[in-house]
């Protein structure tokens, strides 16, 4: 469906940051900025699916080349 353009360290960092932001959402129920922590869904999904629409628009590819 989408071309893979996120790889290696970039993918791991996206997953870790996404999980950390979502953990903050659940661990800080009374924080006034709690809803902003839901932005963690974006890096989590782009890391899990190894594709980033913004990278596609800009022409960035962090996957190692095969060959």
Oligomeric nature of the chains: single chain
Count every helix, treating DSSP H or I runs of 4 or more residues as helices: 3
Shape: elongated
Mean model confidence by pLDDT: 93
Helix-residue proportion:
40-55%
Name the helix and strand elements from N-terminus to C-terminus, one letter apiece.
Answer: HHH
Number of strands: 0
N- to C-terminal separation?
Answer: 23 Å
Main sheet record: none
Low-confidence stretches: none
**Percent in strands:** under 5%
Q: Radius of gyration, rounded?
A: 14 Å
Classify the secondary structure makeup into a structural class: mainly alpha
Describe the structure.
By secondary structure, the chain is mainly alpha-helical. Helix content is 52%, strand content 0%. The protein has helices spanning 8-27, 41-49, 53-58. α1 runs antiparallel to α2. It is elongated and about 45 Å long. The model has no long low-confidence stretch (mean pLDDT 93).
Please summarize what this structure is.
By secondary structure, this protein is mostly helical. It is built from 3 helices and no strands.
Defining key terms:
single chain, 52% helix, 67 residues, mainly alpha
Topology (SSEs and partners):
Elements: H1 8-27, H2 41-49, H3 53-58
Helix pairs in contact: 1-2
């Amino acid at each position: 469906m989408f071309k893979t353009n996120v790889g290696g360290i970039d993918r791991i960092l996206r997953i870790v940051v996404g999980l950390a932001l979502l953990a903050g959402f659940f661990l800080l129920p009374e924080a006034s900025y709690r809803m902003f922590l839901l932005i963690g869904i974006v890096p989590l999904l782009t890391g899990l699916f190894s594709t980033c629409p913004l990278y596609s628009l800009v022409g960035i590819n962090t996957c190692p080349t095969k060959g």
